[in-house]
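Why do we bother with a discrete structure alphabet at all? Because it lets us treat a fold like text: something you can write down, compare, and reason about line by line. To make this less abstract, here is a complete entry for GAF domain protein. Read it the way you would read a sentence in a foreign language you are learning: slowly, and without expecting to understand everything at once.
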Amino acid sequence: MADLNDPARLAELHHVLLRDDADAILDACVERATELARAPMALVSLVVRHIQLFRAHRGLPPDLGVSCATSRSSSFCQLVVRHEEPLVVEDAVRDERVPKELVERYGIRAYAGVPVRVRRHVVGSLCVIDLVPRTFEPGVIEGLHRLAAEAGARIEALESDTPPPSRTARERLARFGQTARALERALMAIAPVIAEAQRAAATLPEAPQLAPSTGDLRAAVDCYRDMFAIAAELADDAMALSRSAPAEAASELAQATRSLTRDMVEISPLVRLAESVLGGTLDEGAAARAAHVVRDAFAAHETATAAVRRIITTVERAPTGEAW
């Protein structure tokens, strides 16, 4: 049985998590999956520490299509990753293996998912979902395996598409302290809005509001987008440092920034929901219900803050001599 929090498994999902643009190959995989299984929904999920992130999807309810995530604890795909084998559910209401939150909230009744592998790790699932109880023929599962292999190869290619280093090691190290402290301040600034959204989601249906005010919500969204861009730059610099500098601190920085960027990705479903409210595509009630489904994303703010503090401490302890 696989450890869902295995650092080696999570490390396979670094650069690919930083991208939220549509990918034609992954989109084609889920499109073909819906046709193969004659099912209304399909997705490629990436199972991270707190959430499952939908990297490609077809047919999802509007709020899930916006957030592109659910809490890992409520997902079916976590079982595919944990056991590293296919999961077939013919009637989710009667199946004791699966969590019932998504069954009750979205009417999911049937599910078939197979592992998506990157190198030797199962990073997620390619699955099809139906709203009525049903069986899945063996040919459907075989076809899903083939599509999952294509999806895994594509994710591996995206993960390998790293930008070339553009700064010296000592220049990168000098940037780390400044940018990490800026991120720490930004995370502290966004904390009250995150806390308010968490309270709103926890009190459903009594208080279906995602945030206290439109102004605070817009400020929080803008703050996050700035933080995400900075965190992505830090991650690139950290990987370049770990390749070019033998110092132990370089390896520590690389691990801490990987952790940070994963946490930032796990906060992003809440941000997308906030943007949908600001843009008028979802009302506050629907967004708050979806925030309840991705409630574990709230924990990512705390772990992101801890990761930034580890980065600052590591930079302060790093040698300043020619080893860099």
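What the structure line is telling us, in plain words: The longest strand covers residues 121-130. The beta strands are 41-47, 51-58, 69-71, 87-89, 110-118, 121-130.
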